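User: structure tokens for this one?
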Amino acid sequence: MPGLLRGVARTAVISGTATAVSNRVSRRQAGRWAQQDYQRQQDYQQAAAPPPAAPQQADDDMTSKIDQLKQLADLKAQGVLTEEEFEAQKRRILA
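Assistant:
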């Protein structure tokens, strides 16, 4: 009987150790997968984000407005536009 009890105890210790090791490996693997998923998600979000283009567009708009105002000033200087027409067009451009 002592031999049988020793064998059962030994089997229980081995089984408990195997279970603990298996659980630890499973947790580590799940952590690695979660980290990979997080990294893929970050890469996808960075690739999907459009590049900022607002400053260039604002510069183009301002340049366009300045050119239009210069043309209006030239027309006024040539006498094609009156002072009131010039002011009205200027307000329209700057609005």
